[in-house]
TrEMBL record:
Entry GO MF terms: electron transfer activity; heme binding; metal ion binding
Leader sequence segment: 1-23
Protein name per its UniProtKB record: Cytochrome c domain-containing protein
UniProt entry tagged with the keyword Iron: yes
Superkingdom of origin: Bacteria
Gene3D superfamilies: Cytochrome c-like domain
Alphabetic keyword roster: Heme, Iron, Metal-binding, Signal
Domain called Cytochrome c: residue spans: 22-113
Length: 114
């Protein structure tokens, strides 16, 4: 009986794992999320633009440990005085970003740290 139960459990686990991988493969990448939310209209991944720092520059300037919550808030609310004189548009002037999306975007930015 135990070998049969093990086989059923293993088969179920493999099916769930395959379904999870399929869902992830059809999900939106963080780059696509950044494009959809219009982050890429002002930011790039590697080069500075006159109006906004690159995500790589942001990752190098801030730390996940000290600045994660602050940057999530900036993504959610916009604002100024966090990068020279540049002002990030307020939420009503750009695409709406959820808390979960903001957290995903900030983690993605920190992953660009060299």
């Amino acid at each position: 009986m135990k070998p049969k139960l093990l086989s059923v459990t293993l088969a179920g686990t493999l099916c769930l794992g395959s379904f999870s991988a399929l869902a992830d493969s059809h999900g939106m990448t963080t780059m696509q999320l950044a494009e959809e939310k219009k982050c890429m209209a002002c930011h790039t991944t590697s080069e500075e633009l006159p109006r906004a720092p690159s995500f790589t520059s942001i990752a190098q300037r801030y730390t996940m440990e000290d600045d994660y919550d602050r940057l999530v808030k900036v993504v959610l609310t916009g604002g100024e005085d966090h990068w020279g004189s540049a002002k990030m548009p307020e939420m009503d002037a750009r695409a709406e970003v959820s808390q979960k999306e903001a957290e995903k975007l900030v983690k993605w930015i920190f992953d660009m740290k060299e």
